[in-house]
């Protein structure tokens, strides 16, 4: 591979951690003998166009510096191209970095790890999920958790996973279960009343919530966690177990596994992949 690689940076990720993380990550890569250039963007569309240009021009690797949103954006540029992808975690949730086994908020260590992998050819293929023409690496959320994710992403404080805890409490008051139609591998159909349905390529979202604890990035399958109709009190009791991944033995929860999943729910707030772009300023 060429020795020139590209840092794809969201400087506003993690309240400015993205900009700060780029410098030590770039230094570690340069110390390892790589030529590093940086790509920014004014908005998601502009940033993605710039990243795709870097890939088309033959960059050896595209290294996302930021959170889950930046990682997701970078994936859109590299999928199907053969260009290597790396990630320096500098966001709020960093769930995709967790799934990849990358250091969290240690940009110099992440840079050294990526440099070692590139020099020694220690790269691996992973699975991705796809919704329409959009790829995702971690978890697709629908129903209650989609609402929580939206609210949490709009909150500036507190930092880290606690914002999602507060967002969940705020959303509990109004949310009601939805009638879902779930189709597995184009054949089996399940119709259920569900509080949420999470489709996991990776195990966690929301800063370490292991909603799909058995999800494996390399098994060719998606894990589907279905939380059935349950009371607010039950949801509050079960919720703390999500961080340990021990919630799946609760009778209200069903875990499915398939290569393709169809979701339909009347009145659903939509699906989200746990990703966000903070406008570059």
Automatic annotation (TrEMBL):
Protein's name in the database: Diacylglycerol kinase
PROSITE patterns: DAGK
Tree of life domain: Bacteria
Family as reported in the entry's similarity comment: Belongs to the diacylglycerol/lipid kinase family.
Keyword terms, alphabetized: ATP-binding, Kinase, Lipid biosynthesis, Lipid metabolism, Nucleotide-binding, Phospholipid biosynthesis, Phospholipid metabolism, Transferase
GO biological process: phospholipid biosynthetic process
Gene3D superfamilies registered for this protein in UniProt: 2.60.200.40, Probable inorganic polyphosphate/atp-NAD kinase, domain 1
One GO cellular component term: plasma membrane
Species: Streptomyces haneummycinicus
GO molecular function: ATP binding; ATP-dependent diacylglycerol kinase activity
DAGKc domain: residues covered: 1-135
Cofactor(s) named in the record: Mg(2+)
InterPro entries in the cross-refs: ATP-NAD_kinase_N, Diacylglycerol_kinase_cat_dom, Lipid_Phosphate_FormReg, NAD/diacylglycerol_kinase_sf, YegS/DAGK_C
């Amino acid at each position: 591979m060429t020795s020139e690689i590209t840092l794809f940076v969201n400087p506003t990720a993690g309240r400015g951690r993205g900009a700060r993380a780029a410098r030590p990550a770039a230094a570690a890569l340069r110390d390892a003998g790589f030529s590093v250039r940086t790509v920014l963007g004014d908005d998601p569309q502009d940033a993605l166009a710039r990243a795709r240009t870097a890939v088309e021009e033959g960059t050896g690797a595209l290294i996302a510096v930021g959170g889950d949103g930046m990682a997701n954006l970078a994936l859109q540029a590299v999928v199907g191209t053969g260009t290597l992808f790396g990630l320096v975690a500098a966001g709020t949730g960093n769930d995709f970095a967790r799934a990849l086994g990358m250091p969290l908020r240690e940009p110099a260590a992440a840079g050294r790890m990526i440099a070692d992998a590139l020099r020694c050819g220690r790269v691996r293929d992973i699975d991705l999920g796809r919704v329409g023409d959009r790829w995702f690496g971690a978890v697709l959320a629908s129903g209650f958790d989609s609402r929580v994710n939206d609210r949490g992403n709009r909150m500036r404080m507190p930092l880290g996973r606690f914002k999602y805890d507060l967002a969940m409490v705020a959303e509990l008051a109004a949310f009601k279960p939805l009638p879902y139609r779930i189709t597995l591998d184009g054949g089996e159909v399940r119709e259920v009343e569900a509080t949420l349905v999470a489709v996991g390529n990776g195990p966690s979202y929301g800063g370490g919530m292991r909603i799909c604890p058995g999800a494996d990035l390399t098994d060719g399958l998606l894990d589907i966690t279905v939380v059935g109709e349950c009371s607010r009190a039950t949801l509050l009791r079960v919720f703390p177990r999500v961080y340990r991944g021990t919630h799946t033995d609760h009778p209200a929860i069903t875990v499915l596994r398939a290569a393709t999943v169809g979701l339909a729910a009347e009145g659903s707030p939509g699906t989200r992949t746990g990703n966000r772009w903070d406008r570059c300023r």
